[in-house]
Amino acid sequence: MRKFVSIILALTLSAFAFSAGFQLNEHSSTYAAMGNAVVANARNASAIFYNPAGLTYLPGLNVSFNVSLVYPESHWESLDGSLRTDQKKHLNVLPAVYVTKQLNDRVTVGIGEFSQYGLQTDWPAGWPGTELADRTYIRTFYISPTVAFKLTDNFSIGIQANYVLSDVLITNQINFIDQFADVELSGDGDGWGGSFGFEWDVTDKFHIGGVFRSEVTIHYDGDADFDNVPTPFLPILYDGNIKAKVTLPQTWAIGFSYQYSKNLEIAAEWFHTDWSSYDKLEAVRTNGEVLKSVPKLWDNVDSYRIGIAYKWNDSFTFKFGYIYDENPAPDETVEPTLPDSDRNDYSVGMDWHFSKNLTISSYFMWVHFNDRRVVGNQSGFDGVYQTEAYLLGFGLDYRF
């Protein structure tokens, strides 16, 4: 299983966290351009992610290929401003693929690949917070078979299974005054969950939609590796097998879309994440010894989204979006593995309807994190974190 997970996850480079916690929601260029406010109006194969009920609006065979490029910038400063450390810069890649097939007027099936949760932070070794975190990443890979039913002419539902592969890496250093020991914890695992969505066409112009995605508990098997450990500590800090568990949170969203005119569509969405399931990050040796336990105690949070689509002509549609994202990490547990904060996201994009069957889309998103000032943290590591992220995405949707 470990070799299989590693091969699959190699196809999905770890992405920097830029939504609530380490949640990722930019899995379609045409909908990321609208601030992901599409739970009530998903009309291409990426509805598998946004709302599986939307599949009933797709005739024939549909495929959607999408990729987002994520470039984050982040740094930490001491409270007095005398020290500063920049994170290493990475260009991260987030792909997504979807395929749907209409079986008859009432039933459509599909399958999708996407990565709803991902995280990468990479601080230089030896920086002031090196005992808490140097490099951290979590990667997930969702495989989601889906079936959607049109129950009436104006009401549809979608049901989905989610098989999730994941791997994780955490590195830091231990200061023994005259030398630093290197610590690396790594592992991979998998888990199962499910999703349910609905869409109600109240009128020809007004639509209401909702989606629920369940928790997924990932059980990791991995290794602990120590280097440069002083001899007196070798009986405690030795290499060996470890186990860990992370529960990815349940989410739900509800929203509407309104066709204000022939050319103008307006959409809004309320997205909720139950991050309280992420109460701690703990690694345990196979003999039951707790090797590392970090309390998280995250809060449940909301995201508010607005999207606008303006059809310029038969060839081009321009899109705009705004997202306000609450962060789940309380002041007492926020630390360098994820220096999260509330943020404002601004997006713009364009769909090029190249032909009746082919649409090419692109978007740009700027994610502005509020400065996160940490004082009295339980880890004893205070300071100010500042972060920005820039996303550029492209998509191709084809109907056979």
Automatic annotation (TrEMBL):
Gene Ontology MF terms: long-chain fatty acid transporting porin activity
Similarity-based family: Belongs to the OmpP1/FadL family.
One GO cellular component, as annotated: cell outer membrane
The protein's name in its UniProt record: Long-chain fatty acid transport protein
InterPro entries hit by this protein: OMPP1/FadL/TodX
Record's keyword terms, sorted: Cell outer membrane, Membrane, Signal, Transmembrane, Transmembrane beta strand
Record's bilayer topology term: Multi-pass membrane protein
Major place of residence: membrane
Signal peptide: 1-19
Compartment(s) where it occurs, according to its Swiss-Prot or TrEMBL record: Cell outer membrane
